[in-house]
Task: structure prediction
Amino acid sequence: MKKLLTILLLLTYGICIGQTNLVPNWSFEIIDSCNFGLNCSGGLTSGLAPPWDSPTGTSSDLYNSCSTHPFCRVPSNYDGYQNAHTGNGYVGIICYAQNTNYREYIQTPLDSTLISQHKYCVSFYVTLGSWLALSTNNIGMYFSPTHTHIQTNYGLTFTPQINQTTVVGDTTNWTEITGTYIANGGEQYIIIGNFFPDSLTDTIASPSQYWG
Result:
């Protein structure tokens, strides 16, 4: 099951209003090329929306209205039909693949290192691709002090500091995931995806949709 994601806000110092966004290229508008390749596969993984990448080397897909391939366009693409929440683009990752524990993630450095004991307010948006058969919970964000590069098709075992425990299955609207994080200090990266195995992940089937 593939989720479409866009990062909109990472706010600092606890007030959560009018503060500085620490996430670079937060809505995936800065892209190096509109040629994402067949099925848009690996557009983000290949570095087409810097400084975003994949911590596991799996295919993190990039969608934008400028795409030269019909499967990779916004609003209509490989995963269904969805307008961007902001701007012209978003990315797609697999958060659950039935009975395989296969996972995809996206990763970016922050514009500045987090400060110990400071409160950081997180907000990002997800939507389920309208052609997809399963919705899931456990869409989370992990703050890391280092860049992660682990070649694997399976889930990362980090404990996300922000995690959506209820299933997100809306294919029409973008669902906001929010939370606050008290930094240990030194965190420089965020990773987004599902950090839990299939056995600890809840799903809801949508029989009218196509892809599992």
